[in-house]
Amino acid sequence: MTKNLRLKAARAKLDMSQHELADAVDVTRQTISAIERGDYNPSIKLCIRICKVLNVTLNDLFWEEN
């Protein structure tokens, strides 16, 4: 599963909208949408904020497997 789909799945598991996640990590909904589409690579700081809100680890959400 790609990191884009893992983010979307983790967000959906908490029944959280893109807008709610964006508000929680202090970015726009468009930023979350772009990350989920694979059009934007977030900074490590943003990755950490997203993981904290979704209660997952960086490896769970963003680790790219070969």
Automatic annotation (TrEMBL):
Tagged with keyword DNA-binding: yes
Gene3D superfamilies in UniProt: lambda repressor-like DNA-binding domains
Coiled-coil blocks: none
Keywords carried by this UniProt record: DNA-binding
Superkingdom of source: Bacteria
GO molecular function term, any single one: DNA binding
CDD domains attached to this UniProt entry: HTH_XRE
HTH cro/C1-type domain location: 7-61
Name under which the protein is recorded: Putative transcriptional regulator
Organism taxonomic ancestry: Bacteria, Bacillati, Bacillota, Bacilli, Lactobacillales
